[in-house]
Write the structure tokens for this entry.
Amino acid sequence: MPVTKAAPAPAADTAPVPASERAAAPEGTPAAAAASPYRGPDFDALRRQDPELSGILLAELERQSNGLQLIAAENFTSPAVLAALGSPLANKYAEGYPGARHHGGCELVDLAERIAVERAKALFGAEHANVQPHSGSSAVLAAYAALLRPGDTVLAMALPQGGHLTHGSPANFSGRWFDFVGYGVDRATGLIDYDQVRALAHEHRPKAIVCGSISYPRHPDYAAFREIADEVGAYFIADAAHPLGLIAGGAAPSPVPYADVVCATTHKVLRGPRGGLLLCGADLAGRIDRAVFPFTQGGAQMHAIAAKAVAFGEAATPAFAGYARQVVCNARVLAAALEAEGLTITTGGTDTHMITADVAALGLDGRTARGRCTAAGMVLDTCALPYGTGPPGCTTGVRLGSAALTTQGMGQAEMARIGVLLGGALREDGKVRSEVADLVRRFPPYPAP
Ligand SMILES: *Cc1c(COP(=O)(O)O)cnc(C)c1O
């Protein structure tokens, strides 16, 4: 596998995938495009018609290209995924499912959805896939709608410990309509406290147990969750929004053999369009499908479904498996580099694309840290820390991810350098901004053909 010229050669099995190679079309895709008069999104038409908006789009592309995108939930979709998103499939109404639509003219979008479903099933080894959820939150909503009734008790990771809004936030439908009980992580290790999960399950007899987090950097023990759910007769829902791409690439264990339902997003490490995905066994297929349409959604977004099909196709390639491995290698190197800069790394490291860290030892809070890094061209998030010491609403946590950088073709050498640059930015070293610019210039996310 060729290595980006500027980067020193990493170990053979972890070579970064250059951006120019990662979009290779999988074999067997219908070749109609070559003969079509359609040439994809016409950016010049937008520029002529609406300079105000096209200016924002171009400036955003520049912002994404000229900085380091360290937000753990973000990535760069391939030009092929973007083409599907900007395609005329966006025009089609398609309520229902392939072969059973409430509108005419769905024959071709039916083909696209069937391909998306078959690719998702094959990629994740699932008996059933629903590719219609508009987002990760919509997928979780549909999973709850399929399995629960309002007022049911659900056991999930507590929000201050790393749970997502859909895991019981009072500001979200989940907290309003269900009775959530929260589990957390061990104070000393930062790892999920399975004894606590088991004790809470036996005490509260939840109808469902949810595993999944926005900040947990380790692999959950899916077998343990399954066992605990079985002990109390609960459904086991795995919200794999973050690690789905690592699972697809074989770089993280899969919840599919253990969970009743897997909810996910397609736009994080998986590198597809913004959207959701549901996987389940054949026994729950009908309930899951009805929970998506007509219970929680109307017409499917066929352009997004086509783009998901493209992304699943990309994710089934050996190049993607190399990318997934590299994402984890990169996160580990970055975590070690940040530790050397004085940050305290949650759980002492990472198994995934994600790093959460405490900046308190540097005398900073999360917002100040994020502001200093952003000013230097490095975009990251603040995040709640399970046992944070700051006053309420003032976390000293930051969250970073390696997926977007890896997609750009960066490897371990760049990660080590970025750790140093982040340390410099946190100390307000004025030289960092131009060094970041020099680095990113070598890794354009959308290189000219
Ligand atoms: C990102 C995420 C979601 C929601 O995804 P959206 O597309 O933003 O609605 C749900 N659960 C977890 C664990 C997530 O990380």
